[in-house]
# Entry
Amino acid sequence: MMKKFLKTSALFLMVLFVGICIGTGTMEAKAAVVTQTDAQKTSVTVTWPAEKDAVSYNVYIKENGSDAEYDLVGNTGELAYTISGLKPATKYSVNVKTVRADGSENYGSILYKAVTIPDKLTGLKQERWYYFINELDVQWDNQSAADGFEVKLFDNKGKLKKTNKVGGYSSRTNFSVKNNVVYKVRARSFTTFNGKKYYSSWGTIYCLNQPMLSKVKVSGNKLELKWKKTNGATQYKVYVSTKMKNGYKKVATVSKNKSSCTVKKFNGKKFSSKKTYYVYVEAICNKGGTKNTSSSLYCWNTKRGGGDSSWNHRK
# Structure
């Protein structure tokens, strides 16, 4: 008797729950699965099966990882929609909601990985060159839809030295290098869509180490400097400050054929042997339509002079 009562009670509660849900709309069906059918540099096309009671469909989008709300980008009576004006090599979420005759929407169905294909690799630059461990670090702008990157290192004669394959989650890599020469770095991204790889165009930079100062001396109210030349540099720029970490001002630009200079004044005044001045030199390589500057990690001061053992970290 008790078992029959419990079964009857359970059935009654289930029927009551379903009735409440239907009455309040909490069990409404989601739209059918959304699929991406085409990817371009600045657009994606998505499609979906027909939904019962649909008058039309609202299409929403937002960039993956964004805290912003979805943006309504269009309404259509068709079962496909192309969203334009997007960023290349970027991952988006697309939400398609069914619009009923009374204007209400259902919850919708979300495609969490709608991707555009790459165009250009942007932000490629020399991040740091660690002179004393012979390491070059390069980086580029993140691309959320990138599945990976190819980064190639060439010596100053154009010979390929190494290719690094980097996962799409990263935006940097490093190489072992020799000092006092210019290297060329080329990089591109790729995104896989429907089993095919789509590549960006190559980005190209030229990388070179910061010149090491062998002489830093105030003599006769003038600052005398000497450094190691970089093979492939097109010029050098000299910076001076009275503080180690900041306050540097450019005081001289020197041609590629020279590896020394004499600076007469700083901030409009002659140099004094009683003061401490901090100095660093940047190597410049303007080549192939690009402007490239060495790292500037190290500085030297006039009290310690020059040499590989007398440097300080400027940054």
Summary: The longest helix spans residues 2-24. Residues 213-313 form a domain with the Immunoglobulin-like fold (CATH 2.60.40.10).
